[in-house]
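S2.1 Query sequence (Enterochelin esterase)
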Amino acid sequence: MNNPTAEPVSSSIFPSKPSVTVVRDTALVSVPLNRPVTLDIILPPDYNSGPDDLPVLYLNDGQDLPRLRLTEILDSLYQQQAIPSFVLVAIHAGDRIQEYGTAVQADYMQRGSKAGLYTNFILTELLPYIRKHYRITTHPARSVFAGFSLGGLSAFDLVWHHPEHFSKAGVFSGSFWWRKKGLDAGYTDADRIMHELVRKGKADKRLKFWLQTGTLDETDDRDNDGVIDSIDDTLDLIAELERKGYRWGRDIRYVEVMGGRHNPETWSQVMPDFLRWAFGAAN
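Output structure tokens follow.
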């Protein structure tokens, strides 16, 4: 790491053993987004003595690291030797309602109008910056992108459309309801934007997907089938992936949390499962 503007901002809860280091990096100013972008970089305990091409996880909504308890989770997993060393790049959100979404199309209320600019920022500014200043891989097979809610939709969209940069998507309570029409304007399930993008897109068989919902993510049930919309939308997206040739177990992992809510506390609960899936020896 050779970025002079980065400085450690946290210490370990395990003072007697090697721990992760969190670096607050504020040097990156995005041209497409027209704003500075704050990054929290979590470095593994052996960062300074390890290889120069560590795997990397990019994470939307990086401002939520404390509520996600990510430093504690990582310290525990590293001490258990449950995951290999990797670098986590947590991207603080700006105007998340406009910057997160699907890059090619805003929703029916024009939310996500800057999602294309956000994708441009990720590909043309963030990736080169991180590769220059931190010891991470450039190989897509060891590069993961994840996010929560709208940030999960954004992460899925980035991975689906850019397998030249990423191989795995992690989606916690993804906003797969993202649609072209309102419920009072003749909406049908065919109006869900990400489902259509997968349906009409070209599958890259190297991609893998981890998707999570909670049974209390919401209460809406627009088709009155007794299943909340967030679960229906996620399972329907998995069905689209299956039609493209992806398979449960091999390419897709789905985690449904009984009593899980749409919040960082639930997402923190399943974070170890996601990290083992993303970086475990079998992957």
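The chain has one domain: 7-279. The domain at 7-279 is CATH 3.40.50.1820 (Rossmann fold).
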